[in-house]
Amino acid sequence: MSQHLQHQFEKLKKMILALGAQVEESVQRAMRAMETRDKELAQAVVDDDELIDAAEIDVEEECLHTLACYQPVAMDLRFVVALLKINNDLERIADLAVNIAEQAQFIAVAPPLEAAPFHLPEMARQVQTMLHHSLDALIHRNTDLAESVRRGDDPIDRMHRRMYEILEERVRQQPDWMGTLFHFVSISRQLERIADHTVNIAEDVIYLVNGQILRHSRPHDEDRVPRGSAAIADKQ
């Protein structure tokens, strides 16, 4: 790798990590707004989404500039391709954080429930851990950490399904609370989708490191997944 390309990669890495930090903060603030019924904080998450959108565009343009000017190959090419995909997933996570913040605004003005029917804070904690670990896996090119993120998705799916069961029970018991209950379930859905995007990031890290394409496989099927053509090319 030339010195110029190495400097360009360092620039891209800093940009994607800065975006990742912004997205992590957006998710954290959205959930805090829900938990504390803070309408102003929720609105701040919505307003700041424009900054994240702009950062996402900057990363994409810099990646395209790298492809056009440096024409990377093999693992260097995988790095740029992976960053383009991760960039898109981070922007989508930020959009989902905005969705949570918008639901939090409804919850903030609704009468508080006597007892919270959902374990959203614990679900959010696990999802935020997955997001943080996926970015750590990118920084350190750690496939073991990326695999742990993939394995974390099934527990989140189970928690989300349980939310619907609780909703059905509570609506029968307290039909007047239906609107507020649906807002909580909607937040659960957004968290479940954030978890899906963190898995995408983790799988892109694995692709970056060893060329495996795991997009349509489950974690326990990994031994049966053939390596991608990029990995084969690296061996030639």
Précis, in short:
By secondary structure, the chain is mainly α. It is 82% helix and 0% strand. The protein has a single domain (3-235), classed as Phosphate transport system protein phou homolog 2, domain 2 (Methane Monooxygenase Hydroxylase, Chain G, domain 1, Up-down Bundle).
Rounded mean pLDDT score: 89
Please tell me the total number of domains: 1
Strand content range: under 5%
| Poorly predicted ranges | 221-236
**CATH fold type:** Methane Monooxygenase Hydroxylase, Chain G, domain 1
The helix fraction, in percent, is over 70%
Can you walk me through this structure?
The chain contains eight helices and no strands. The chain has 236 residues and is mostly helical. The chain has one domain: Phosphate transport system protein phou homolog 2, domain 2 (Methane Monooxygenase Hydroxylase, Chain G, domain 1). It is elongated and about 65 Å long.
